[in-house]
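Reviewer 2 asked us to include a model.

Predict the structure of this chain.
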Amino acid sequence: IVWSFFIFVLYYLLFIVIGAGFGLSEQMEHGAFFAYYSWVIDIAAPFVFIGASWAIMRRLIVKPKRLEGQQNTEALFILITVLVHPLSHLFKVATAIAQNHPPAGLGIAAPPVSTALSVLFSPESAGVWHSFWFWVHWGFVLLVMAIIGYTRYLHMIAAPINDLLGPEVPKGTPEPIDLNNPLTFGTSVITDFKRKQLLDLYSCVDVGYCHEACPATATGKKLNPRLVIKSLKANLMQNAPLALNNKEPVAPLIGEGESSVPEEAVWECTTCGACMEVCPVYVEHVQEIMGLRRNLVQLQARFPAELLGFFENMEQKANPWGIAPAERAKWATRVETKAFGAGETEYLFFVGCAGALDSRNKQTTIALATILNASGVSWGILGKDEICCGDSLRRLGNEYSFMKIVQKNKDLFEKRGVKKIVTHCPHCYHTFKHDYPGYGIELEVLHYTELVDDLIKTGELSLNAPTNSRNIVFHDSCYLGRHNEIYREPRQTLLSATGKSPVEMEKHHDRSFCCGAGGGCMWLEESDGSQINVARVEQALEKEPDTICVCCPYCMTMFEDGLKSKNAECSVNVMDLAEIVAEALDNKAGG
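Predicted model (structure tokens):
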């Protein structure tokens, strides 16, 4: 439908606007180009008709779940205009051919579909029918032009513009705040949204792919990305006229009602980006939700009670659990490490809070340190001087505290001469790579899966001949895969270490299903619906795995908890890719 729509629009632009508008119709409509284009549009028209027919059947008969709750009257009316448009065009041309007036004259072959339809009309009746179909066609064209600004037809104009503008920042990355500009502290009213975000609201056509992909929606929570955009658009329609007259808005952005987003829904987003990945018109649902969170945290001090302790721990100890900084380096007593120093070490291994302080994820940290040592890479750690990267603070809307973390890390990195960073956690990776540059910090950042894959390819890391016969299912972390498109490296590394490609779950690569911990949800309780991590574990168990392979400390925690909920922790292991590679190290090569 959409490509044929553009073909028709170009037809009108060339031969109506330019041809008739500049008095060039005779010259333009009797040449070879017009004849060729008549063939193109003649062949495109049946596909529009078939597409519109199927769309109508899908709403009235098939009724997929993602289309529930939409404005069916308006949608059906629009689809009927789409249906009539190509049909009337074909009959308009067919009746002209029946009168011996084919497009571009008699010297060039007439388009095939219209020619086939022309046999339905006798030369005597063709003139009357031509007038009928001519006015039906142009009547519907004029009708559509008149209603574009008042219906979802508007998305046909807004969506291409939205596509051309594209994301203003890297996927899943909020823009920095300006302490001198309160408007950047959060989205309080609809007019606080930026141009691209407002354009999102006009671009959305309610296809429902976003809520079909959303893990929160799938597990019965209040968050529905489609309804978030729909509510924001309703808020815009209600409040924009008041804003233009310098009046106060009457509908709050966050609250109950069709023009507001429920407060619970704001906190249920894992920022996994599944909604943005499947959206055909580049609507950035996550950015809108981040703006609402910033408003609640920074301007209203309204947030779930469990976040109070998290925020306090981050402020006082620079880690989510409030553990003393001296504990960060204790894992290093079990493997050979050294302190990072400029000129002495090439890479800073940024261990991260979970890798340094969580007992299960310390095992992954040790495995990765063992791999780095075996490869001969020059690396070091910050030890007790390391602090959190601030990922969860930012995704939870506490940008001010995040800025303080960034400044501390900036000072530390400059003091120690850090230029290259290797991370274990995809959230640390994404934050250093995409968030920190917004505050003037440019670093070369690698996730360990990228580095290990490269070390294996160059022969710097030697592995034993694969003997692993385990059935390993691989899980794509949202911040490693969807947000940063790192898919090949971990799979290739797993193949090198085990001799087998991993088993893929039904939802994988860019359609992967979140573990439930992103967006700061690691520190929040799931009060509505079922558990996201349990839903993902169930998807993994369908493949009857021996081992579930992850590349993220959050995913590790969520999968292990999910397996316990399913009483499967004794039969299925969760291992980080680094642990699997460490098992496969060639000890003879010095591993």
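The mean pLDDT is 90. DSSP finds 25 helices and eight strands in the chain. We have added this to the supplementary material.
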